From TrEMBL:
GO terms, biological process: DNA recombination; double-strand break repair via nonhomologous end joining
GO MF term set: double-stranded DNA binding
Organism: Sphingomonas paucimobilis NBRC 13935
Domain Ku residues, every copy: 54-183
Protein's name according to its UniProt entry: Non-homologous end joining protein Ku
Biased composition (Basic residues): 268-296
Length: 296
């Protein structure tokens, strides 16, 4: 367990208070860190804090200010901001419980592991965890973390609990603004059957280890090639990139059928799998087989 908790406080349920600690449940992935460079000299560019008509200033001369009118600021130092009294800075009060399915995925932001702060808190912690499991509910409350107050959810996770910060309603865009122009047309039955079969073909358990960051790997390769080329400009060949364009039903049908090739697929749709005109691949020969059946 990390030496220092991200947050320490208590979860309160009615008259019951449970001392807990929060630890980040995620970490940043591998990224490429670029610096801005002055090309003629090859030296890195630095940034200074400057004031108009004064020039560079020291960090200890900087305070935070809120503009109340043009050129008029209310100045606050960090000690004054930290002293703001807010109960949710030290206490997460669970004020409502909902089904997990009621929370739209758009509202979830960042997860944290929650553990009891000491042995004395463990009994109440376990009672809360098991009660959430048995009811299938998610606890909701508000918690102040690092300069702002969040809506948070609390749910069981193995032997512990997971706390997730949530976005406020005004931080989530309304889907209708983006989806309203999408038509209400019913999909072609055969296309839908093929799409369902393709989904079945590619279905399986979630394993995040199967995915990795191709972009970071490509950047490392580019950096290596650039270093070996001694500064020569390198542009990736895009000839092999898949074309992206609108497609009609015939194109979509062909693409779905091609995606299904390579293995026997059993559709679990309610209807029987649609008959297609695709022929069984012929054996290698110099002549072409006649169609299996010919009427007329």
């Amino acid at each position: 367990m990390p030496a220092r908790a991200y947050w320490q406080g208590q979860i309160r349920l009615a008259l019951v208070s449970i001392p807990v600690e929060l630890y980040p449940a995620t970490k940043s992935g591998a990224t490429i860190q670029f610096k801005q460079i002055h090309e003629p000299s090859g030296k890195p560019i630095h940034y200074e804090k400057v004031v108009n008509d004064i020039g560079p200033v020291d960090t200890d001369e900087i305070v935070k200010g809120y503009q109340v009118a043009k050129g008029d600021y209310v100045l606050l130092d960090q000690e004054e901001i930290d002293a703001v009294k807010l109960e949710s800075k030290k206490t997460l009060e669970l004020t409502r419980f909902v089904d997990a399915s009621e929370i739209n995925v758009l509202y979830y932001e960042r997860p944290y592991f929650v553990v009891p702060a000491d042995d004395l808190a463990e009994e109440a912690f376990i009672v809360l965890r098991e009660a959430l499991k048995r009811t299938g509910k998610v606890g909701l409350g508000q918690l102040a973390l690092r300069g702002r107050e969040y809506i948070v959810s609390l749910r069981p996770c193995g032997r512990g609990l997971i706390l997730e910060t949530l976005r406020y309603a005004d931080e989530v865009n309304k889907a209708q603004a983006y989806f309203s122009d999408i038509g209400d047309a019913k999909p072609d039955a055969e296309l839908l059957d093929l799409a369902e079969a393709l989904i079945e073909k590619k279905s399986g358990p979630f394993d995040p280890k199967q995915f990795h960051d191709h972009y970071v790997e490509a950047l490392y390769r580019l950096i290596d090639r650039k270093r070996k080329a001694k500064g020569k400009k390198i542009i990736e060949d895009e000839d092999d990139a898949p074309a992206r364009s609108g497609s009609n039903v015939a194109d979509l049908m062909a693409a779905l059928k091609q995606s299904m090739e390579g293995g026997e697929i059993r559709s679990r749709s309610r209807k029987a799998p649609p008959k297609t005109t695709r022929k069984t691949p012929a054996k290698k020969t110099t002549t072409r087989k006649a169609p299996a059946r010919k009427h007329g």
